[in-house]
């Protein structure tokens, strides 16, 4: 089997899925929008900037910073690695919150 | 590290009184932090930085010339909210490598920018943005009394 074109995204998906059993998980790779940044001049990775939408019951009764920390902890190594994840945008919702938000957006 | 070495940028409120509050590092939920690697001097310097003003943003670049889109967005949000420049300080982590690494451990948060209000960690850009949108940031900033006075209240009736 050919090696994945998106190794970082695969790792993220695997770790988040395993730890948080999300009911919805969307990962967007925005790296191409940032490739010209000065901070990116020494990296060849195509997977540096991510936007991740996670809906999981594991976030219930947790404040936003706590939720983000859960994800940061999962991806600790990937965030710390040289040429790893440089920027990580998170949207963390519980299934109930997601339902409400979607109802609102639909109006 | 001398706290004075932490580079303060424009908007900083000169002579803003330090109002040390309950040290969040003493609370049990930060117990894990005590295992962190940053030196106690760095920690003290950051303690002091966090307490420089009621609203403190650790960012890349300066409010006038942010060096990162997320830092730029954070400054824009604080501006839209009407944060009083007298009650605001920004620290440019790009000017101080010790601060740049130290603040990540201090806050247990791996990315910049980071917002503190009254010594309490609030979050990064995503959290600021969602709080901006759902109104909770306005509520928080209003409760902490860090917004510019509404124009109406300044043009009070002249005294006779």
From TrEMBL, chain A:
Gene3D superfamilies: BolA-like. InterPro entries: BolA (IPR002634), BolA-like_sf (IPR036065). GO terms for biological process: [4Fe-4S] cluster assembly. GO terms for cellular component: mitochondrial matrix. Belongs to the BolA/IbaG family. This is BolA-like protein 1. It comes from Friedmanniomyces simplex. The lineage of its organism: Eukaryota, Fungi, Dikarya, Ascomycota, Pezizomycotina.
UniProtKB/TrEMBL annotation, chain B:
CDD domains: GRX_PICOT_like. One of its GO terms (cellular component) is mitochondrial matrix. Keywords: 2Fe-2S, Iron, Iron-sulfur, Metal-binding, Redox-active center. GO terms for molecular function: 2 iron, 2 sulfur cluster binding; disulfide oxidoreductase activity; metal ion binding. It comes from the Eukaryota. It holds the Pfam family Glutaredoxin. InterPro entries: Glutaredoxin, GRX_PICOT-like, Monothiol_GRX-rel, Thioredoxin-like_sf. One of its GO terms (biological process) is [2Fe-2S] cluster assembly. Residues 55-122 form the Glutaredoxin domain. NCBIfam families: Grx4 family monothiol glutaredoxin. This is Monothiol glutaredoxin-5, mitochondrial. It comes from Friedmanniomyces simplex. The lineage of its organism: Eukaryota, Fungi, Dikarya, Ascomycota, Pezizomycotina.
């Amino acid at each position: 089997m050919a090696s994945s074109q998106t190794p970082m995204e695969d790792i993220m998906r695997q770790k988040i899925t395993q730890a948080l059993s999300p009911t919805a998980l969307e990962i967007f790779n925005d790296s191409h929008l940032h490739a010209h940044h000065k901070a990116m001049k020494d990296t060849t990775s195509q997977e540096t900037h991510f936007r991740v939408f996670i809906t999981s019951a594991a976030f219930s009764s947790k404040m936003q910073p706590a939720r983000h920390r859960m994800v940061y902890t999962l991806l600790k190594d990937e965030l710390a690695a040289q040429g790893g994840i440089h920027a990580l945008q998170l949207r963390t919702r519980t299934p109930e919150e997601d339902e409400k938000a979607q109802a609102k957006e639909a109006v | 590290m001398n706290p004075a070495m932490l580079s303060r940028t424009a908007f900083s409120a000169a002579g803003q009184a330090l109002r040390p509050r309950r040290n969040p590092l003493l609370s049990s939920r930060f117990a894990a932090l005590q295992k962190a690697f940053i030196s106690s001097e760095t920690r003290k310097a950051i303690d002091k930085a966090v307490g420089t003003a009621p609203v403190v943003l650790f960012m890349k670049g300066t409010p006038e010339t942010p060096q990162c889109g997320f830092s730029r967005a954070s400054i824009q949000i604080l501006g839209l909210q009407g944060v009083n420049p007298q009650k605001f300080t920004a620290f440019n982590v790009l000017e101080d490598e010790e601060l740049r690494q130290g603040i990540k451990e201090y806050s247990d948060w791996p990315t910049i920018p980071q917002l503190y209000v009254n010594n309490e960690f609030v979050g990064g850009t995503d959290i600021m943005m969602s709080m901006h949108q759902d109104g909770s940031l306005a509520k928080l900033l209003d409760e902490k009394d860090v917004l510019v006075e509404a124009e109406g209240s300044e043009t009070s009736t002249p005294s006779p």
